[in-house]
Specification:
α4 (109-130) packs parallel to α6 (165-176). α4 links the parallel β4 (89-94) and β5. The chain is of the alpha/beta class and 252 residues long. Strands 3-2-1-4-5-6-7 form a seven-stranded parallel β-sheet, with helices on both faces. It is built from ten helices and seven strands. It has one domain (20-242): 3-Layer(aba) Sandwich (Rossmann fold), CATH 3.40.50.720. The two termini are 27 Å apart. The protein has helices at 29-40, 52-62, 75-83, 109-130, 158-163, 165-176, 192-198, 202-212, 221-233, 248-251; strands at residues 20-24, 44-49, 66-69, 89-94, 134-145, 180-186, 241-244.
């Protein structure tokens, strides 16, 4: 943890002062925590989400400049949202969507296509519509999973879908330059999404991770938010994948 500045040293500047951060999927979890962190670092934030009521509350909580309720998987809605933004933006974090689990042989072709392409398609549509509105040196930041390195029963197509994101982000970084593109690959994060996926198994999962993770605790949305804001502020990072799982992939 960073301590207070030494006596007589100048105060640390805010890392995102005067910048604008858009959170696609910003009404809860990682998106909302990143909005809070960005605000604390001097940025204005714009939130989107599917649930109007939850989004309105989140926007009030963080003092958002504006918010917009729509489904990020709807290309027309994404296009309209970015077209109507009032000013240039600096950074976009996409947390919308999530992994698909289940036995491969029980998936029909449409389910398979959706599971493989969901985050890639959303990421590409966001890039396509955001690029002309973003300042040089800003970053489009996507979310993935360290699950790409783990093959097992119950993982289904999720591992293959996760594995596609790193090369996708690297290729997109070349096409979108001078806007940067990066990927955060998370393990278990104690978020509303995890709660919805695990249900009554959540408490046991937390207990297991506290006992086995090298960091001795579970990863929470604020941890991911801190990494996201660092990537936004550090203009040298581009086309890269950043793991954040507390060491889970080495002990699972």
């Amino acid at each position: 943890m960073t301590g207070p500045p030494a006596p007589g040293s100048p105060p640390r500047g805010l890392e995102l002062a005067g910048q604008t951060v858009v959170l696609i999927g910003g009404s809860s979890g990682i998106g909302l925590e990143t909005a809070r962190r960005a605000r604390a670092e001097g940025a204005g934030v714009i939130l989107t989400g599917r649930d109007p009521g939850r989004l309105e509350q989140a926007a009030r909580d963080v003092g958002a400049q504006r918010s917009a309720a729509f489904d990020a998987t709807d290309p027309a809605a994404l296009r309209e949202f970015f077209r109507d933004l009032p000013a240039p933006i600096d950074h976009v974090l996409v947390t919308a969507g999530g992994p698909t689990y289940g036995p491969l042989l029980e998936m029909d072709p449409a389910q398979l296509r959706d599971a493989l392409s969901d985050r890639v398609v959303v990421g590409l549509e966001v890039a396509r519509n955001a690029a002309s509105r973003m300042r040089a040196g800003g970053t489009l930041l996507l979310m993935g999973s360290t699950g790409a390195r783990r093959i097992g029963h119950g993982e289904g197509i999720a591992s293959a879908a996760s594995a596609a994101l790193s090369p996708f982000v690297a290729a997109l970084a070349l096409e979108l330059a001078p806007v940067r593109v990066n990927l955060i690959a998370a393990g278990f994060v104690d978020s509303p999404l995890s709660a919805s996926l695990l249900g009554d198994q959540l408490a046991e999962r937390r207990k297991q991770l506290r006992a086995t993770l090298p960091i001795g605790r579970v990863v929470v949305p604020a941890d991911v938010a801190a990494l996201a804001v660092h990537i936004m502020a550090n203009t040298a990072v581009n086309g890269a994948t950043y793991d954040i799982d507390g060491g889970e992939q080495f002990v699972s």
